[in-house]
Amino acid sequence: MSTKRTAVFISDRTGITVEMLGNSLLSQFDHVHFNRITLPFVDTLEKAQLALEQIKQIGLEEGTRPIVFCTLVNSEVRNAIHGDNALFLDLFEIFIIPLEKELGQKSSHTVGKSHSAGNVKDYNARIEAVNYTLSHDDGQSHKNLDDADIILVGVSRSGKTPTCLYLALQFGIKAANYPLIPEDLDNMKLPPALAKMKHKIYGLTITPERLAQIRTERKPDSNYASLANCRRELSAAEALMRQAGIRFIESTTKSIEELATTIMHETQLARRVF
Amino acid sequence: MSTKRTAVFISDRTGITVEMLGNSLLSQFDHVHFNRITLPFVDTLEKAQLALEQIKQIGLEEGTRPIVFCTLVNSEVRNAIHGDNALFLDLFEIFIIPLEKELGQKSSHTVGKSHSAGNVKDYNARIEAVNYTLSHDDGQSHKNLDDADIILVGVSRSGKTPTCLYLALQFGIKAANYPLIPEDLDNMKLPPALAKMKHKIYGLTITPERLAQIRTERKPDSNYASLANCRRELSAAEALMRQAGIRFIESTTKSIEELATTIMHETQLARRVF
Description:
The structure is a homodimer.
Chain A: E1 3-11, H1 16-26, E2 32-39, H2 45-62, E3 67-71, H3 75-81, E4 87-90, H4 91-103, H5 120-135, E5 150-154, H6 160-171, E6 175-179, H7 182-187, E7 201-205, H8 208-218, H9 227-244, E8 248-250, H10 256-266
Parallel strand pairs in A: 1-2, 1-3, 3-4, 5-6, 5-7, 7-8
Helix pairs in contact in A: 2-3, 5-6, 6-10, 8-9
């Protein structure tokens, strides 16, 4: 039987961390449909009070109490929300005490320490990586290819661009990408600009069915999008990558996060920002 | 006194969630310098054993035990790592029991349920948002502006592009952006294409000092990068946005995550992907 419950993510900051952890926990319950609400920037008693009112209201309307995931650094704010009106799972509260004990230090209990732009070095590294990645998208520039941390290759629409952007934004990685175009595939050769770069090339592939589906959304009823053509391109691209000794990964059943992390892991690239 | 400790993030998946939560907790301890290691895709007993060896080794070399944040769904894998060799903070273990009790259901204990590409609808929405955002970066296309969920404006280098890309990748939001160029500022008018779009425009601003610093890295010793010019442009841009009734936010001390989330929150935009 499928049931419906509301999950609320509350944070004194962006709420991104608590949403990610909460969603990963909720995904373990197949038979519950979760309605999700995020309340970011809850950093005053007043906002805590408003959040509590909203939680109470949901409980009244639905007849079941909401499940609330919080990361609230300030204990006054936290205490103003906690109570019997919801199942409260506070990530901060549960972990900070054992950490204080282990480190022999009190925590600073300061809101807004993580992913802060206060760290100008990290911020600059991210922006620089994003700019680099944008100007080296889809093989548009051979300039400064030596500066690339990684170069992704693959046929058109195999997932190179979003993966590169994620690498840049999340990890500060300078990620160039080159399409393997029909010419490259006919010659069974990598794009000439990449010949000396093999050590930092990584490939993406995808199933012909999925590729045809993606390309059809872009150019319906074209040869480009036809299953036969997708099959041909992919089989040639995979043969080319094998021959060149380039590792590759199948993107079909993987999220952008998984593609990016797998590539980082397998190439032993270290993230440049935290 | 500043001390040094090693933090290890272990996940059976990408490790991104556990890194984010771990970093947000560690940032509460000012006087400790943390060396960080991430071990993603630890999903077999064999990999768990290797992770444990690495943890033991760090403890021996440093004379203090590492702090280990994990999200390990499989209890066998988890038990193979846990022990006295580290402070183990397992996010999954701590929260899954109260959730099971509250929901009256056993969790599926399945690895890899969250941000999975299995959800083709979510995946397509993200890719579509990224493509839209790329083709509407820096005012390069007026086409389909009606489809934009949001349009960011601001002077050159105020942080529009990375914020738009983050909105697209993380939340599936179609985010266009337009630079406010000297012409717009002289006329005290928004770019003409945006005249009918006011309801979905949001502005970015920045301090003149920071802007001059960023622009100097791009074009040293130029009028474009000079503090006087940055002051002039920013003051005109802010006056223009005020006059047009456009809300804006200062990007100087904010991370990309904070900018994106604040804009989502203030414009009441709902995320399109989870």
